[in-house]
Amino acid sequence: MSSEVGTLPARVNSSTRVRFAPSPTGRLHIGGARTALYDYLLARQTEGAFVIRIEDTDRKRYVPGAEEEIYEVLSWLGMEWNEGPDVGGPFAPYRQSERADIYLAHAEQLVDSGHAYYCFCTAERLASVRKEQQARKKPPRYDGLCRRLNSEEALNRKHVGESHVIRFKTPRQGKTTGVDVIRGEITVENATLDDYILLKSDGLPVYHLAAMVDDHLMEITHVLRTSEWLPTFPLHVLIYEAFGWEQPAWVHMSVLLNPSGKGKLSKRHGSGGAHAVYPLELKELGYLPEAVVNWLALMGWSYDDRAEFFDMPDLIRKFSMVKLNASPAAVNFSKLDHFNGLHIRSLKQEDLAKRLVSHFHAADLEVTEAELAPIVPLIQERIRTLNEAVEMSGFFFRDTVQPDPQQLIGKNMSAAESAAAVSRSTELIQGFDRLDAESLELALRGLADDLDLKVGQLFGILRVAVTGQRVSPPLIETMEILGMGLVLERLNRAAELLDSLE
RNA sequence: GCCCCCAUCGUCUAGGGGACUAGGACGUGGCCCUUUCAAGGCCAAAACCGGGGUUCGAAUCCCCGUGGGGGCACCA
């Protein structure tokens, strides 16, 4: 393990602390889940702490229930956390809205040390300044009006209660360099940076202040975030420097792109269907958490030129930050299907039966794990999602099936010939005490021979008769499980349907 | 408009100067197996964005161009 992370700062092997810091502003999507996964893998691999921090300083964008969904998704995917708003921890509270006083104190500390200043400009003035700059094709930036205020005047205005924010006093000259684990040095001219607001007029911080303060206070050693933070990365370096803090290891991973490769993954692609972008949606569609984890891990990270099938313990062992890919990755849903199939097939039969239950229930089929048990071996290697099991084997649990009469006609056969085949099959089956696969198959193959039919012709008719479907689990085993009663019943029904065609 | 990042098959990627007739996976096509559908096995098509350098030698290093992505809020 040490060789895989050997190029990273030495503290990797001491006590690593990694945090997943989502905003409860909407549903957690697969991009967020992937970030959390990498956080988790790094923490577990180094036997460090995985921390959840809720970044809810924007009261306007707060979405009730979003925080709960975050916990639900992480739990479902199998990432247990060591510290967080719900479980507490040595650095509580872990919800930024509950830490307002901390940020205020730190912002004022920066004012005192000359690294920040009070700004009394109104939103209207800022908007007009920005508009004017854009009209002149100039980069929109704060014009520095309040930066020039002397501290005495600023303090006075503050004390009489004038609404204000605290801005960072970004150096006007020079450049700032930050070091990223996967991209190396990122350098930016300070002049292209802004005097960013650190503390809003409502007294709450913006990300730039809150995240830096918390990462330091919570002793976070590795900051993993997506590359959309690259433009303000140097600002964050500057903030750390202003406080005189030691920087964490910065890791800016690539973003996820839409399946088309055009643009950042959008929610629009989600909502039902094959392109669900929310993990919880994937769960409902019948994807295994193991498969989702496997799939997510491989979008922007790779192990070697061969292995791809991983479970969580594998990933914990094999993960390496330096193997994170710097370029954006388009999500590939067909690969998720593939992984899901692989993971379904690697499940123990009892386990698969257990997981199938809720999906049958969702389709109004009240089945039990025990009833599913004999079906599982028949479908395990045929399904790619849990929901497909319902489509494929739901007929086992319905009182009747509704075959399409036309489909009851055998290949290259007439309706009458097909009806005859059904009636001969019925007679044959009536001769059984009970249906056992071995002798039933022998008998049915013999019958096909007698009728001068190909096995596929006869079986095709019986398949549709008995299951109501053209695609089903293997016919013989299916009939065995269904039992004589149901098989005969459905055969009779098929005979009627065939007769009605003539 | 300005700033930052990125660039190998359709997609995810291996590759860190010679091991490259560029490897794997998904998807696609074909064959085998076969009671349907799968699964499995075999095979095939499919890529180093362009141009300059550096070097005996470049997918690998540098520069420019182009393309793609991201950012430019009292959002994160």
Can you describe what's shown?
- The radius of gyration is 32 Å and the shape is elongated.
- Helix 12 (349-362) crosses helix 15 (386-393) and helix 17 (437-450) crosses helix 18.
- The termini are far apart.
- 44% of the residues lie in helices and 9% in strands.
- Helix 1 (30-45) links the parallel strand 1 and strand 2.
- Residues 1-13 have low confidence and may be disordered.
- The chain has a three-stranded antiparallel β-sheet with strand order 3-4-7.
- It has 19 helices and eleven strands.
- The protein has 502 residues and is mainly alpha-helical.
- The structure holds one RNA strand of 76 nucleotides.
Q: How are the SSEs placed, and which strands pair?
A:
Blueprint: E1 17-20, H1 30-45, E2 49-52, H2 66-77, H3 100-112, E3 116-119, H4 123-135, H5 151-159, E4 165-168, E5 175-180, E6 184-189, E7 197-199, H6 207-217, E8 222-226, H7 233-243, E9 249-253, E10 256-257, H8 279-284, H9 289-297, H10 312-318, E11 329-330, H11 333-345, H12 349-362, H13 369-372, H14 376-379, H15 386-393, H16 415-430, H17 437-450, H18 455-467, H19 475-500
Parallel strand pairs: 1-2, 8-9, 10-11
Antiparallel strand pairs: 3-4, 4-7, 5-6
Helix pairs in contact: 1-10, 9-11, 12-15, 16-17, 16-19, 17-18, 17-19, 18-19
The structure holds one RNA strand of 76 nucleotides.
